[in-house]
Amino acid sequence: MNITTFLNSSLHFNAYRRYPFLLFELKSITRQFFTRSRVFLRVLVNEIKGTKTVPVHNSGVTSQVIQINRRPLLRNLGDTSCNHHWNSLLGKIIGKRTNNAIAASIRRNIAKNLANGVSLGLVGVGFINKDNVPVLFNEEDELDAVIQDIRLRFSAVNWNIGSQFNQKGPIMFNLEDIKFGNCIAKGCNAAVYDASIEPKFPNPIAIKVMFNYDAESNADIILKSMAKECLTFQGNFGSEIFSFSKERSPLKYHPNIIEILGTTVDMLPSLPEAEKLFPSALPPRLCEHGFGRNMTLFLAMPKYDCTLRNYLDKYYPTREISLILLSQLFDGISYLVKNGIAHRDLKADNILIDLREGHNYPWLVITDFGHCSTSLILPFYSDEISRGGNQALMAPEIILAQPGSFSYLNYSAADIWSAGAIAYEIMGQHNPFYKYPDQLNHLDNRTYDESDLPRIERSKTINLLLKKILNRKPSSRPTPAQARNVCYLLLLLNQRKLVHLRCLNKSNLKPSIKAGKIIPLIKNICSSTLFQRTTLINGRQLNSVEKAMRTMFLSQLNSEDLLAAIAFIQID
Prior knowledge:
single chain; alpha+beta; Phosphorylase Kinase, domain 1; Transferase(Phosphotransferase), domain 1; 3 domains; three-stranded antiparallel beta sheet; 14 strands; 37% helix; disordered N terminus; non-specific serine/threonine protein kinase; Prot_kinase_dom; magnesium; nucleotide-binding; EC 2.7.11.1
């Protein structure tokens, strides 16, 4: 064993058992003497130059954990199936920020940090290169390094967040396996039934029955014609012979996107209330006035409690609940845009809500991808090409586009515009682009001006954000990720910390100073999430929705989007 390996291992607890006591003490004292001398000289030189430096992570660098406080801080986390993963993650993240030479300084600042609610000095780590020399950078570099490290650590956690079932792989079923209940929803293109698939799948599910007017009664043709509805289905439709199965590239699971559990193509049976609710979609053998085909597509999905429309009608969401919904909505749209998908039919009826944690902690998923496009930019050479669904919530650049040989439809910022209009409903106000019986005037997405947009009374920050989202110029709108981060910051930080962030928007503030102020706030969010508490001091236990949202936020952090989100912060 070489001297470097020995010295590195000496910092770990098990080293006390591996090596003789005297040899260990001698090596440890010698190494610490040279290490602290180097750090002292470096800090002294930088102080003389007037440059403030801090230790951070660097490529090709290894880390060493130094235990500062051995108290059992994890004993009160509660009995959850994921605690062992949190404990592992805790040691990887919190223990990667400081060198042994400043361990004493961390101890002195613990009381101060606890009082300010900034960060908890639990363990320290020095980052060393191959020559055992500490690496020092400024605060801007540290902000990128801290955020990158947090993002990578939380991205490695596969919680299957938001999934109602611990289902491995798609459900394989036939029409005979389905026990249909009542019809729970009906649209222009499909009806949704309460159902179960027993004994193959004991959990209650929803079966979406597609209306087939055009595709001939052939399984392969039906699957191709309704491929967009199967966007998130991970299976191969039960048969390798379908050429469609080999061509498709399904969208991977995301907690805020509907999960398709299984599909089947079969003859349309006689369904409860079908002749009353959708007679024209039935084949002539079931209804003499029907125009539908004999075969159609059946989709198995998780059963949700209600649509966003139903939820907003029944409950009046508080500011916090509205931010929970907006964060998840922007998160889902961000994932779609990242994967080059435009929904093109966003509205409150196409958003489902799960209330497993109660109506104060709703979980949101985007559904109904029948009008989606798997490309954000489409050639628009003819008016016969569909622009999408719901025209009232169609972005100005889409509704005003004129067909031509060199024309195209750019959906890169179209879904975020639709979400901005829906956000008014989530914040407890009328959608400015809808007609209401008690409202004389409404805005037209073809001709409106940003100054005509109604004001959001409950939040100055959200008011500013929505005005930017509903800007007529797509290039002037924030990205879904930036909009999501704004909502998360409002949710996770108290008023005092928001005031602190607001002060960072001063134009004369140096980037290094701004970065140095942001790092403690991000570390605080990370620490409280790892301990599954709302705050480190006197915080209550996080429920599954809060823990999932925090995990998703931290797993998608990047400094550019975070700084852009901070620029929106206003003080209410």
